[in-house]
């Protein structure tokens, strides 16, 4: 609780029924445990319990206005336009808390308010998610670059370096509280892992392309699987110059060359 900075008021209303109303305002700063697993699309439930730590239920009973009136007045008086948005306010009475004193077991009255807050995710979607989607999309489409004319590995390393710098700059926007890891951190780690795997695939493809003369020829079943079925699966059409991957030459008994197409 911070120092009370509101103006001093000295009005206390007493009723003949024994009811007393103290309108002295307080400026309270409190903390709330956050569940940030669904960040930035998380909804938080902050609970505040009001009770008297001196007077028991025999001396004081706590009452409040209807929670709907409290919610409407909160919507009217709220001034914040920041990260959080007020959704709902609920009230409940916890079970009587008992303690032992000289007269035996005693209890005091309590009122609990549940304040439902929702985070506005627009800032995080624009600054975190959309740039990550763009970078991972560029990394995927970089496979369309011809490895004979373009150094694809250097391009992918530049993307990884840029994505790492992006994560370092955007680290301040990520939450640092809570006992769970936000799912958005898992998404960033997955994107970085896919970029590294893409770089390793480019290195392997370049190695096979440049050093193919040092390797033995591929078996026929590998050609059929990769150049026929998998090519059809990804939508690649056959070229006239590539018909040799589906044509097998045989020698018949007469010594003539005959073609058999798979």
Description:
The radius of gyration is 35 Å and the shape is rod-shaped. The chain has 262 residues and is α+β, with helices and mostly antiparallel strands. The chain has a three-stranded antiparallel sheet, with helices on one face. Strands 1-2 form a two-stranded antiparallel sheet. A two-stranded antiparallel ribbon has the order 5-6. The chain is 35% helix and 21% strand. Mean pLDDT is 78; it is low at 242-262. The chain has helices at residues 67-77, 122-141, 152-169, 183-210, 220-233; strands spanning 12-14, 20-22, 43-51, 84-92, 97-101, 104-108, 110-119, 247-251, 257-261.
Offer a few descriptive terms.
262 residues, alpha+beta, 5 helices, rod-shaped, 3-stranded antiparallel beta sheet, two-stranded antiparallel sheet
